[in-house]
Fold these 4 entries.
Entry 1:
Amino acid sequence: MDVMEAARIAEAAGRNVVHMEVGQPGTGAPKAALDRLAADMAGGPLGYTVALGLPELRARIARHYGEWYGVDLDPARVVVTAGASGAFLLAFTALFDTGARVGLGLPCYPSYRHILKALGLHAVPFRTSMAARLQPGPSDIADRALDGLIVAGPSNPAGTMLTRDALAALADASAEHDSALISDEIYHGIDYGSRAVSALEVTDDAWVIGSFSKYFSMTGWRVGWMVVPPHAVRQVERLAQNMFICPSHAGQRLALHAMECEVDLQANVATYAANRDLLMEALPRIGFDRIAPPDGAFYIYADIGRWSHDSRAFADEILREADVAVTPGLDFDPEEGHRWIRLSYARGTEEIAEGARRLERFMAGRTPRGDAR
């Protein structure tokens, strides 16, 4: 957020900034879906919905699991939420009592840690490795006495995914150690080569988080969803009634319509794929050669340790000298994020290409640090 604000100030001063810090699509919701929502709104006021979400949207999400993953899902297990953030609040509140220990592999989405702390829960971070493509494994559960584990694929910030076998092994280890498995799947649909695997393909006990923000290009509409075990539905419903009343009615109707706009949505993914290929060719040449190649999402997490051990200062320097906004790794990893940056490639291809050109000029002639490794 600090980088975004600095970029805004630079633009207000008349500078042209390439935005590679923003974790959201450069496109809006599909036009056909917006047109159908306009017709819905012309038909009368959109008041409260039931707390679990519009029944027709819950049914459509359940059908989505059959279409994408071959999973026969009861719509009664689907909870529509106020963005994926609302889903995390509901899941953590329903699953854990004060003081519970919830594991997460570093680097990871920072709000996991902050939401857990706000709820009086203990985030238990552990180190992942480049060899494991910055993903957790079963051994990370065994000796930590965890009440829960959060996994994500494609992940933020690295864009890496767990294979079906790896996800099944994590599910088995979680069950063996009586640890709840929470699977963050909000970037599903944005993948390159192999499709993302849902935790529901390997276990019926996972709590699965989805979102309309990324693949469906609806960030500002704040609609997500959660799939919960059957025994938890009523508990989550009571929590949702009190915490949120319901998600945005208009957002829910737009989400329902967006699910029928596959052609537009796949065109967005094709743009992200082109951007990914462009950066994966350019960044090693520029000097950012230690990367876990992203399987999905629209991020690259790059080790800058050859050049700096202060990712915040390095990001400030890139913005000041190259007019490119990138995200320091500190939020994603408070232990080692000082030597990493995240680059988002969710914008148009020409903008990403221009960002790469500016970064190449910025890096030209730089000398690596003596203690780079």
Entry 2:
Amino acid sequence: MSLFKRTLLKTALGGLAVAATLGATAQAGEVEVLHWWTSGGEARAANVLKQLLEEEGHQWKDFAVAGGGGETAMTVLKSRAMSGNPPSAAQIKGPEIQEWGELGLLGQLDSVAEQGRWGELLPPVIADVMQYDGHYVAVPVNVHRVNWLWANPEVLEQAGVEKVPANLDELFAAGEKIRDAGYIPLAHGGQPWQDATVFETVVLGTGGPEFYRRALVELDPDALGSDTMIQALETFKRTRELMDDGMSGRDWNIATSMVINGKAAMQLMGDWAKGEFTAAGMTPGEDYLCVPAPGTEEAFTFNIDSLAMFRVSDESEQEAQQALARLVLEPEFQKTFNLAKGSIPARPDLDMSEFDQCAQQSLEDFQRTADKGGLVPSMAHGMAVRADVQGAIFDIVTNYFNSADMTAQQAAERLVNAANVAM
């Protein structure tokens, strides 16, 4: 166990002991929820859960931390845990759930899971992520597809682009026409997690699901240093030609608004972007288009939002946590939240007739790729590797993307080195 983890464990457990003596002073039935659902569509979606919880008599103490990729929220969470005062619930994803479980700081949700038949409702790929050491410690809120391309059909038409690009060559060819017509081909925000989102999508479109899995999930040095990775890195840097000079530091939803407002033609972003189109009153297939990112039609890069429950000693707080976990997987919330958020329900047994064509395609593709081997976890969104490894990849990817001097070969070598350190 690392020094950070040992310190965190000692401090947090000490905080739990203090909380036990102060439990009587805590507000009954209150759950403090740390999350980063702060954009327009996301905030409205989160408010659905808050309302359902409060209808049952519990209190939702909102702890929203802005930052689309969640890095800032995780920094705040670690700080709170170090001080022995973690929130009751936190938006934690993928391997990080296991890391917090190793520290012994997460509360079990087995009784709620048994009553709600989670084992029967959830696909194995989702259920596995929610458990630590055979016990449920988190509840899935939704399933996002990351490898989407969003497009404004009016801009494409004005630029003489007859169809949305289906592969990377078509993306660059369309980009030239769009630029010549006076529009930005690809809306983007120059933040490390957004750079990594485009990077992993290009890797998937270049090498396919099996190569993606070897490189960005298993961290196979041979794959990371291969000619295929070098080709993907070169293509990734070429996408800068499709972006505007003002992208540095831009939030993802601002980039989405550029597509909505007709300033840009397309955006590579997960389906949380659909929440912004929905909030703008736009209809998929008419006002905007959603298609798999170029070259990734046979793959599905998934990102699962989930809420993990931290150990608490106050009984009323435990009851509020249990109620929160139960509500998350009930049909009312799954339906309402995902309609607002742009994602698909974590449980595939729900009626999808009220969902739009993008969501219906997403669920169909999720099930199809799960059967055929094209379902892969998103590295850029915390589903594939540990947070420290992800951070190292982010640094390499964004430095390469913004460097005029670093070659693709050099970037690949740095990825190999990062993988070797992680092993």
Entry 3:
Amino acid sequence: MPAKKHSWSGNTDRVDYGILLSILILAIFSIMSIYVATVHDTSPTSTPLRAVVMQLAWYAVGGIAVIIIMQFDVAQLWKIAPYAYGLGIILLVLVLFKYDRQRAIANGAKSWFAIGSFTFQPSEVMKPAFIIMLGRVVTQHNAKLEHTIRNDFILLGKMLIWTLPVLVLLKLQNDFGTMLVFLAIFSGVVLVSGISWKILAPAIIGVALIGGLAILLVTTSWGRSLLGLVGFHAYQFDRINNWLNPSQDTSNSGYQLWQSMKAIGSGRMTGRGFNVSKVYVPVRESDMIFSVIGENFGFIGGCFLILVYFMLIYQMIKVTFDTKNEFYAYVSTGVIMMILFHVFENIGMSIGLLPLTGIPLPFVSQGGSALLGNMIGIGLIMSMRYHYNSYMYSRVNHR
């Protein structure tokens, strides 16, 4: 009898309930916000009931993905990394030929498959595949070579070799926002990979200088002419104009941002209350979902949502330190950077701190492919605790 009791306890300890609780709270925010957004907006293709049911269905699919991925231990994740990456590349290539024409006309991006009414963005599931592949590359390199300046440059080159094909394909899809997410993942893994600061410091300074040059280019007429020659479009310049001066054009290109800021501001400290909507915001069920939270639940509700994200990140970091596995550390870093960048960019653009990029709010915005990609990332983190606790339990019970 005691053995059975210990076995049950050991199995339950393998599940990280802190992470699950954070996801559950975010799911509640998601369902409530999507309902409010759709119940006040008229759409010929979506009703509030359909939108909520679809989001719940995608959460169910994501939950199944988490359970499946949890079964993969570190050795199995290591083996499937190249295959997952390869499949992701194939999907990114295919979407260039089979993209949703209507969506491409609407937002300029060729990044969505469309099969009837079903749409899917392959770059979202490519994110976790890219993360485990990058983790494998760094771990494999560090196991064979010591950290010298020469070897660190080799490591950086290896990481770029696996990153550049993704960035090129996203550029061809004209999906700049998603490119930024992959760059954030890449930067996070580089920072923890052990590469010398003699390389990182000049690289960071170089990025800062490039950023300063980019600001100069987008704020001058001659600079915009140069950017136009390399593929920048008028709508991208409009987004920058609206970011720099939100009140400049509140009825045309700046309408979405201005309405989002109005909605969030109207919520004040405690919000107007659930299902009260006085300010219309375009696409508020997905990219601008934070405007719904700000209007309904106010500053306090927005801060609580951000706190839930911090708790989720804290739980992820805690799992990483507990497992003490190098490959897992790089994988968790990639997942954390993916989620952090999404949260920072989405909320930042909703309140006017950052330009609009079309990046959804993780686990809250409407969208099946984004939710599935994030849930796969959660599955990777959950698998760390699941197999580490299983390993520790087996050691204790076989002494």
Entry 4:
Amino acid sequence: MHATDALKEADRLMTVCNSCRYCEGLCAVFPAMEMRRAFTSGDLNYLANLCHACGGCYTDCQFSPPHEFNVNVPRTLATVRAQSYAHYAWPGALAVLFRRNGLFVTLATAASVALFIFAFMGAGGAHFGEAVQGTGAFYRIMPHELIAWLFGGVFTFGLVALALSLRHFWRDIGDAAESPLAPRPLWQAIKDAGSLRYLDGGGVGCYNKDEKPDDNRRFYHHLTFYGFMLCFAATSVGALYHFLFEWEAPYPWWDLPVVLGTLGGLGLVVGPIGLLRAKRQRDPALLSEAGAGMDKAFTVMLLLTAVSGLLLLVLRATPAMNALLAIHLGIVFALFLSLPYGRFVHGLYRFAALVRYAQERARDA
């Protein structure tokens, strides 16, 4: 009755786990599982996005390989989770394109937009060997109106695509009539997501191939998430400066957008590098190849966005500023375009799953 082999395998494993229940204290997946006796595809996608892939259940399970039951919950749910990104994505054609060629398509998009901006700058008389300094320096080589329309358009498209995908996911994982904005479950989900409550293997951390748990993944996820939020805050403050007070970038080092962007950029350098390193240290038995390309693409694009942005900040008064601006804008455009089809959307689905879990716990109580 399920559309994919991964969903069929997840159904089998949840049936086995529901009979055992040894791992019910490790995370939210198993208590949510115990509220069900049968599993629809929506239920399995819900459980997959509740899973934080800590590996605790695999290590603790008496039925994990080489047992004949072959219970490997982290790997199976990782496959289901990756497939859910494409299943709920809008429009579906772009989801297929990014899933099959994630890193290549994203980097090609960044390079194409950067070349377009290079050409536009050249046609506008920009001299790439000369430094452009002072208030409004960026907009003397790239008009603010063009930046606003180009990036406002792709950002709006990303928001619409994310909203429609999230709506589809929410309707499939439970009672569509139940609002995701009920105050108490929403607040509980915010606390659980903000602290990465379930990324701890039941309290000891995530398991690696040396079978020694640690908390590194949580630390690097925190740096990445809060670094992203600081960069978003810097962009928002910069927009207020421009449209409300008519203060044009670049701003001084001590001004709020620069401080927020610098701190966020540092988080988006250390965090993604740590996540890529942690990925290599994980037990291969816990990992799924499904969606690996888009996961890597998103992490790499965050890192490139941060590195190019910090270089632009440091070298903005030098002749390198023109080229760095084009490269940075190209990377940001590609990042925005890819948001609804890769790792970023998992954050939204996981948050929605945490809201649903909080609602179910309150109803059960």
